[in-house]
Amino acid sequence: QVQLVESGGGLVQTGGSLRLSCAASGTILRIHSMEWYRQSPGKQRVLVASVTSSGRTNYADFVQGRFTISLDNAKQVMYLQMNSLKPEDTANYYCHAVITTSLMGIPGGYWGQGTQVTLPS
Q: Which DSSP helix (H) or strand (E) runs through 59?
């Protein structure tokens, strides 16, 4: 049983900053990677950024240079620092994690419920 809980979303002004958090809890042996996705109404859910437990990061082109993803392995919390926010960043942001829950277990994927980020258009 794994739970992912996002927090930190809200209303923010264009050009402003916001930090999202995703806390993982439950039966977790190892977090292999965690990712942030986002989805706007009528659009597909898309990958925003990813981070591995070793610290390797990847970013979508549309957030490159503006967002920073990080993972605190000890606390099992992933963060997304969002700077220079634009109206097009308005979306529901979802946490995803690839986690092993037992010895010799197969890694599986888990989703959070999302947190809304809204900017004025």
A: strand 57-59
